[in-house]
Design brief:
It comes from Candidatus Tanganyikabacteria bacterium. One of its GO terms (biological process) is protein transport. Pfam families: FliH. Helix 1 runs antiparallel to helix 5. The longest helix is centred in the N-terminal third of the chain and has 94 residues, at 46-139. This protein has a 5-stranded mixed β-sheet, with helices on one face. It has a two-stranded antiparallel sheet with strand order 1-2. By secondary structure, it is of the alpha/beta class. It has a domain at 138-286. It is rod-shaped and about 165 Å long. It has helices spanning 46-139, 145-153, 169-176, 181-184, 214-226, 234-244, and strands at residues 19-21, 24-26, 162-167, 189-192, 201-205, 209-211, 272-273.
């Protein structure tokens, strides 16, 4: 066995695209440049050297231009991407700032609106209550109103035993003028009281008393709506005072033809408050007479627990 290495065996068939060089099999065809020319003089002629130099310079310039173009394209792409991202972020930041500013303005406007409503609410309530007081003052002068109030209030007596009914002097005269009044009021006293306003009444029983004066009803309504004592509000307190002293309003509220000026209401010391908003009336034959036991009665339109 000799020391020379064995040469690789060549395949019997060389396929297309395979070239054998120096015992090595190549899978692909490689470009083989021709060897440089051999000049007999031993040196390159000037013309050929100049041509070769020009060719080298041209190839170098072309390569440099190609590299420069590639660098520019890479820089443009990188710069475009960076600029796009920066511009996108700047736009997002700008829109976010605008949205936050708009949101703050809207919240400020809503807060101002709520503040205006909160500030105006007491004034609106006062206006409604003042209008209500004026309506009560006008309607309380109706000559037939006391009949509705008495008929509505009598069923509220807890034990059914009415001792005394206080009404204004004008309403007292009106009730007594009805036919059958003396017979109907035989079980209790109908007393004229100058402290009771027109249209209202104050009923005294054995176990309770019922204040159905308009001044007391208005005061309770104002207390429930305003959630404070009406006396603490100067405007509402004045309205209550006007209802308490209706004679002082004669110059502002014209007296109805054939009517009698209203008189002050009773003090607000009661255990129960009755509503005057009844649709029930007293006929001339039963004026001031309580309804029969078991008779159907409408529920009161307004009721508050005793203080």
């Amino acid at each position: 066995m000799s020391g020379n290495p064995e040469k690789p065996k060549l395949p019997a068939v060389i396929k297309a695209g395979q070239i054998i060089r120096g015992g090595t099999m190549l899978d692909t065809v490689q470009e083989i440049k021709p060897p440089p020319p051999v000049y007999p003089e031993g040196f390159i002629p000037p013309d050929e050297a100049h041509r070769m130099a020009q060719q080298i310079l041209a190839e170098a310039a072309e390569s440099a231009q190609r590299l420069q173009q590639q660098a520019q394209e890479m820089g443009y792409n990188d710069g475009y991407q960076a600029g796009f991202q920066a511009g996108q972020q700047a736009a997002i930041d700008a829109w976010t700032g605008l949205l936050n500013a708009f949101r703050a303005q809207i919240e400020g406007i809503l807060a101002q609106r709520q503040n205006i409503l909160n500030a105006a609410e007491p004034d609106i309530i006062r206006l409604v209550l003042m209008a209500t007081a004026k309506i009560v003052q006008r309607e309380s002068r109706h000559p037939d109103l006391v009949q509705h109030v008495v008929a509505r209030t009598l069923p509220r007596a807890s034990d059914g035993t009415v001792v005394r009914i206080r009404v204004s002097p004008a309403d007292h005269a009106k009730l007594l003028s009805l036919p059958g009044a003396e017979t109907g009021m035989a079980s209790y006293d109908l007393v004229p009281d100058p402290n009771i306003g027109a249209g209202g009444c104050f009923i005294e029983c054995h176990l309770c008393s019922i204040d159905a004066t308009f001044r007391t009803l208005f005061e309770e309504v104002a207390r429930e709506i305003m959630r404070i004592e009406p006396e603490r509000d100067a405007i509402i307190a004045q309205a209550i005072e006007d209802l308490r002293q209706p004679r002082a309003l004669e110059a502002r509220v014209p007296q109805e033809a054939g009517g009698t000026p209203a008189v002050p209401d009773a003090p607000n010391a009661t255990r129960e408050i009755a509503s005057p908003g009844s649709a029930e009336t007293l006929s001339p034959g039963n004026a001031g007479v309580p309804p029969a036991p078991g008779a159907a009665q409408d529920p009161p339109d307004f009721e508050l627990p005793p203080p």
